[in-house]
Write a structure and sequence with these properties.
With 474 residues, this protein is an alpha/beta fold. The protein has a domain of 306 residues: Alpha-Beta Barrel (TIM Barrel). Helices cover 45% and strands 13% of the residues. It has a five-stranded parallel β-sheet. A four-stranded mixed β-sheet has the order 2-3-1-12. Strands 8-7-20-19 form a four-stranded mixed β-sheet. The protein is globular and about 80 Å long. The model has no long low-confidence stretch (mean pLDDT 97).
């Protein structure tokens, strides 16, 4: 790390405390709706008062449950090696989950994805050095609807080695997905010790947890698999129009998830995440690239850090329909702000159109954005003083510093060297190469990446085992 780690913050400690206290009061006075019988049984065991399915969670129970989750989560790759650590201000990128469309780079059209699209997408993510985790990023339609959640996990395990962010569409799918994960571990205990997947769990604003989402939290907690809470307040629609009001609602909904997870299994790993948005009053949309959306994300993450929990946000994505200037603007700004906040898991590279569409072209451009953000966060390094004087003395001898020992020794440490997607050649060189845009250059990179072998090939026995499980449930 450099002399200082660059940081950004929107809330001071006084306001974090106020938000936290009000969020607890909301749970105690307004309550939260649970539609899941297992969760209701856990709450009743604690004597939590209720009115039908609405439970009024006491502040002291919230405080108690906050003492047990781990403050950091280490994720392992498919082969069981340490891959990333969700703690402190460490940042990692994943493509985000559950887009229902793909931008076809060959036709230029947005369409429903197929299984082969997801295979290609997964193989590309596996090659990208600045995208740290896989995600079940596309919902493809050429498998039975009952298989659409677990089959994505099967595919990701087959074609990618990085940790995975995933989630269930049906309660029955969790056990299948657990079975798939166990092909890469020796036992349930080994899977808990070396987590490979994070399960997203999305409450339903305002102040409601569905049967499916709550069951996912309980199932994951019982197996010590990390849950990532993705509260989605929309300012002015199902949340207060004020940014601080939306942050407070997000906090209350996420605290309810903390309680359920810790009642299901004390010490269960959880990630304080979210995908909030403002409501665009002109178009009636929920722009993820709006600066106010990013401000809510930052505030949400600051609350997670205040509670000493790993954090997540959807921030490096765009509402643009193609990888254009707007896409670069929104993805770049979001990725940098998320990095400056120190959000541990940043979802969204490749995403367009309000989280509904994935683009491999944008994914490759966003990989470069992520690389630049990571370089920025390393900060300015001190290699010993004097910082410049001795080097400048040598300039008089050669009239250049390109061949200076310090340049040759340190340029790879000091500089982020982007791929050819980023145009840094002269204008004449650019014209000679075809005057192509960054999107065109990204498209040209795709087939080359797909032609490469996987960074880590899947063991043939594990591959066969995965295929058997898939065949059993299809």
């Amino acid at each position: 790390m450099g002399i200082l780690r660059p940081k950004v913050a929107l809330l001071n400690d006084e306001y974090k405390k106020k938000i936290f206290e009000e969020a607890k009061h909301i749970l105690e006075s307004l309550g939260v709706l649970f539609e899941n019988t297992d969760a209701e049984a856990l709450l009743k065991e604690q004597g939590v008062p209720n009115d039908n399915h609405r439970y009024y969670i006491p502040s002291d129970l919230v405080d108690k449950c906050l003492t047990s989750p781990p403050h950091e989560i280490t994720m392992y790759d498919r082969e069981g090696n340490v891959h990333l650590s969700l703690k402190d201000d460490n940042i990692h990128f994943d493509p985000g989950s559950a887009a229902i469309f793909i931008l076809d780079e060959n036709s230029g059209q947005i369409r429903e994805p197929l299984h082969q699209d997801f295979i290609r997408f997964t193989k590309i993510v596996d090659q990208l050095s600045n995208i740290d985790a896989q995600s079940t990023s596309l919902v493809y339609s050429d498998v039975p609807k009952t298989a659409q959640d677990w089959h994505r996990l099967y595919t990701t395990l087959k074609y990618g080695h990085k940790p995975i962010v995933t989630g269930t569409f049906r309660k029955e799918s969790f056990s299948i997905m657990n079975e798939l994960l166990l092909t890469c571990r020796t036992s349930e205990k080994d899977l808990a010790a070396k987590p490979l997947a994070i399960f997203d769990a999305c409450p339903s604003p305002p102040l409601s947890w569905s049967d499916l989402t709550t069951q996912s939290v309980i199932d994951a907690a019982e197996r010590m698999i990390p849950s990532e809470f993705i509260s989605m307040p929309m300012s002015g629609a199902n949340a207060p129009i004020t940014l601080i009001g939306s942050i407070t609602q997000h906090c209350a909904e996420s605290l309810a998830g903390v309680v359920i997870s810790q009642l299901a299994k004390k010490g269960a790993p959880i990630i304080w995440g979210g995908s909030p948005a403002i409501m665009d009053m002109k178009h009636g949309t929920t722009p993820m690239g709006a600066i106010e959306t990013m401000m809510i994300d930052i505030g949400d993450a600051e609350m997670g850090k205040y509670l000493n929990l790993p954090t997540h946000a959807y921030m490096s994505l765009s509402d643009a329909k193609i990888p254009d200037a707007q896409a670069g603007l929104e993805a770049g700004m979001g990725a940098l702000l998320a990095g400056l906040t120190g959000i541990n898991m940043i979802s969204g590279p490749g995403m367009l159109d309000f989280e509904s569409c994935q683009s491999i072209e944008k994914l490759l451009i966003d990989n470069e954005i992520a690389g630049m953000v990571k370089r920025f966060l390393k900060g300015i390094h001190d290699y010993g003083s004097p910082f410049a004087e001795e080097i400048l003395k040598d300039y008089d001898k050669t009239n250049e510093l390109l061949s200076h020992p310090s340049t040759l020794q340190l340029f790879r440490k000091e500089l982020y060297l982007p791929s050819p997607i980023i145009a840094r050649m002269t204008r004449d060189e650019w014209k000679k190469a075809g005057s192509r845009s960054s999107r065109q250059r990204a498209k040209e990179e795709i087939e080359g990446l797909l032609a490469k072998g996987p960074p880590k090939a899947l063991d043939s026995l594990k591959s066969t085992e995965l295929d058997k499980i898939s065949s059993k449930y299809l």
